[in-house]
Amino acid sequence: MMLRDQGLTLLLAMFFSIAAGLVGCIALMRRMLLAGDVMSHLALPGLGIAFLYKINPLIGGAATLFFGTLLVWQLQRKSGLAPEAAIGVIFAGALAIGAAVTPNEDLAESLFGELPKISFGEFLIAAAGVLLVIFSVYLLRDELTLSIFSPDLAAATGVNVSRLDLYYLLLFSVTILVGLRFMGALLASALIIVPAATARQLTDKLSHFLLIASALSLFAVTSGFLASVVVFKFSTAGPTITIFSAALFGLALLVKRRTKLRL
After folding, report:
1. Is the whole model's pTM more than 0.90, yes or no?
2. Residue 41 Ramachandran class (φ > 0 left, ψ -120 to 50 alpha, else beta)
């Protein structure tokens, strides 16, 4: 039973890694990487309330994460705030509420992952969410790219930029929600931020950028899970996955520097 649970969690994490790589590339081009890191903390109040009342923490995390996402979109739309400013305003309140309501014994799980074991039904729902993210990014890639480089031109071609922003924020939130189980609220966005930043050091082509980011994210997840089982047995998978992601970023910087020196 334990092996089955670990296998389902690893398989879901691998699906999540591909979605995170794609979403991260768009976030980097939109200059939203650090804002995206903050977004993962929007789930913390819901996780804390769920732990407090002994219900599924992912249900609580989903409720506050999506509520916060809609609030960010409305703030951005009606106040003219940049996405990172709107997210920053909501982040402070979300983090404070989450820290206040989360029982001390459950705080580490909320921040670093290792939530209750996954059932097969939960796996199917989460996998469907991840596949929806991947498919949606593929379908919207042209509109997203155009809206990044020229919102006015995108609007002139019939793209509803405000609605597209909402779609992207929701896709971002779904990706974070799936990652909460094994990454936690503190590190859920690490696989969105680091692989995209790493891939950007290695290529300038959009198609290669998307593929490399997803591949690096997948490698980090697989290696991190194996390391947490074999080497870092006292740790959850989230920190080891993030360590591998950061190491890959360091290697990419070295490769880029050596390539420049040869030229």
Report:
1. no
2. alpha
